[in-house]
Design brief:
By secondary structure, this protein is mostly helical. About 50% of the residues lie in helices and about 5% in strands. It has a two-stranded antiparallel sheet with strand order 1-2. Strands 3-4 form a two-stranded antiparallel ribbon. One of its GO terms (cellular component) is cytoskeleton.
Length: about 220
């Protein structure tokens, strides 16, 4: 299940806990739950977002084994951060310098590919209601899109590739085009359905947030 409400201590103590989690991440065999926990803390405590960005830049600068498993875990978390939070302008400039430097020093490497992906993500990220789901984190670690299944009345279910930045309106427009309904005078929207309720999904809502709520 996705992380629920948590109780926190002081920002200083939580920053220390996050630093310890980052140290653990380097050798973690299954880093996904730990990554989601770090992201959840940053969502709940926004002042720590810049701190984690700075720590990740530090950890991915002059790593003992460039491109090794531990180094890539840090890059993967940095990728997830870039699709969830925007750093403050000074930290963003610092981060972009780090991305440029990495691409210059290690062209065509996995680190350079993550750096390119992160730069593009930062240009689209506006903030999230939820942290990425476990599935989304797995896809981001591979720099791939997720497949979202939408059930359409009177038509087969449609599979749509979405990113962390895809809105409900964009998916609805794609489905309208696929189903040949572009000339229809009707209005179309996505609905989120659970065992307890059914409700429309706001046009600007990120589908990735909806999937996290399902998880």
């Amino acid at each position: 299940t996705a992380p629920g409400p948590r109780s926190y201590t002081t920002l200083r103590d939580e920053a220390v806990k996050l630093f310890n989690s980052l140290q653990q991440l380097e050798s973690e065999r299954d880093p996904v739950p730990l990554m989601q926990g770090i992201l959840q803390t940053c969502l709940d405590l926004p002042p720590l977002v810049d701190e984690i960005y700075c720590q990740l830049v530090k950890q991915t600068t002059e790593p003992p084994v460039p491109g090794g498993q531990g180094d890539l875990h840090y890059w993967q978390l940095l990728t997830c951060m870039s699709c969830t939070f925007l750093p403050s302008p000074p930290v963003l400039r610092f981060l972009c310098f780090h991305l440029d430097r990495t691409e210059s020093r290690f062209p065509a490497s996995e680190m350079a590919k993550y750096a390119c992906f992160i730069r593009e993500a930062l240009g689209k990220t506006k903030g999230r209601e939820c942290v990425p789901s476990l599935e989304e984190i797995l896809m981001l670690m591979q720099r791939q899109e997720m497949i979202c299944t939408v059930h359409c009345p009177g038509a087969p279910a449609c599979s749509v590739a979405i990113s962390s930045h895809t809105t409900a309106e964009e998916v609805a427009q794609e489905l309208v085009s696929r189903l040949g309904l572009s000339q229809s005078p009707n209005l179309f929207a996505l609905y989120e359905q659970s065992q307890r309720r059914e409700q429309p999904v706001g046009s600007a809502t990120l589908l990735a947030d909806v999937l996290t709520r399902f998880e």
